[in-house]
Design goal:
This protein is α/β, with parallel strands linked by helices. It has helices at 19-24, 34-56, 76-82, 107-114, 131-150, 165-170, 175-196, 212-222, 242-252, 265-276, 282-300; strands at residues 10-15, 64-68, 86-90, 118-124, 154-160, 203-206, 232-236, 258-263. The chain has one domain: TIM Barrel. The longest helix is centred in the first third of the chain and has 23 residues, at 34-56.
């Protein structure tokens, strides 16, 4: 059994969005036609062109990762491998409140076919939410965790802790107050629940927090069990503004146990939308994606930024 965790910086550009991507970026409802699928895939190829541009501008290939899906990812997994990048791919069914496998019982075949460096799940888990749903999710995730670690594969776990109605009411419906006052503690409890279920995570992909002490609390929880000393965390962007993501990065970066980020829409949404609206040439859109990505790398590493 390989050592649990991951060592080294990890800066992932995330574009494994599927259901939300086709609806919000393209206005496509239901199953896309082959032509619509190709349009979506080409948009993802443009995002990947931004990654390659970032490499050309000095991003370290060993630390650079892409998180991309099988459905619309086209040849990007293969190309990422050819360029020596870290490859992460999702196994969750898109657009579901409750975690389940995208390819059902066949999930393992798909993982082995693409052989990613990280197998990723997105899980919505609030410890005070529906107990039966939480239990079902933990059961499926334990199965995946066991399958992965029996085969020495790394597990990247994206945890989203959305407010329950009661939690939101307790902060007078204020989402910012929920994020600041309640979410950090709920995130720690969620990680604890997942660990208690025997689910072995290598890298936690977690929502940003406003206080460095909260980032440290979460990293400590991720490493709290025996044999978990090498477990690390990366920060997700949640589609937030650049200013907000920068704030989160600045709080997390100095904390032992954080090794980088896995950010998506905050990097590529605006340049891609401008390209699709014929407001920005393709090469310029890729260059803007590269610039946004490198900006966050520089922030994380404490380098001067323009």
């Amino acid at each position: 059994m390989a050592t649990l965790g991951y060592d080294g910086p990890l800066y992932i550009l995330a574009f494994d969005h599927r259901g939300s991507f086709q609806k919000k970026m393209f206005g496509i409802q239901g199953d896309p036609t082959p032509e619509e699928s190709e349009t979506i895939s080409d948009a993802k190829r443009l995002i990947f062109e931004g990654v390659l541009e970032a490499i050309g501008r000095g991003a370290d290939p060993d630390a650079t990762g892409v998180l991309v899906d099988e459905q619309f990812g086209s040849d990007i997994p293969r190309r990422a491998r050819e360029h020596g990048l870290k490859l992460a791919m999702p196994v969750e069914k898109s657009g579901q409140n409750e975690f389940d496998f995208d390819y059902g019982e066949d999930f393992g075949t798909h993982i082995e076919r693409f052989d990613p460096d990280f197998v990723k799940v997105l899980v919505r888990y609030n410890p005070e939410d529906d107990a039966d749903m939480n239990a079902r999710q933990l059961g499926r995730l334990k199965r995946l965790s066991d399958w992965l670690h029996e085969r020495d594969r790394r597990f990247l776990f994206e945890l989203l802790v959305a407010a329950t109605d009661a939690q939101l009411a307790s902060v007078e419906g204020n989402g910012d107050r929920y994020d600041a006052e309640l979410r950090p503690g709920l995130m720690r409890r969620a990680i604890q629940d997942i660990q208690a279920a025997g689910i072995e995570v290598d890298v936690w992909k977690i929502e940003g927090v406003d206080e460095r002490a909260d980032a440290a609390m979460l990293a400590d929880q991720a490493r709290s069990l025996p044999g978990h000393e090498g477990v690390t965390c990366v920060l997700l962007g949640r589609g937030a503004s650049q200013a907000k993501v920068v704030q989160w990065l600045e709080q997390a970066a100095p904390v032992e146990g954080f090794v980088g980020f896995a950010i998506g829409r905050s990097i590529w949404w605006d340049p891609l939308a401008a390209f699709l609206a014929s407001e920005l040439p393709r090469a310029d859109a890729a260059a803007q994606i590269a610039e946004n990505y490198l900006h966050f790398v520089h922030v994380y590493e404490g380098q001067p930024v323009s």
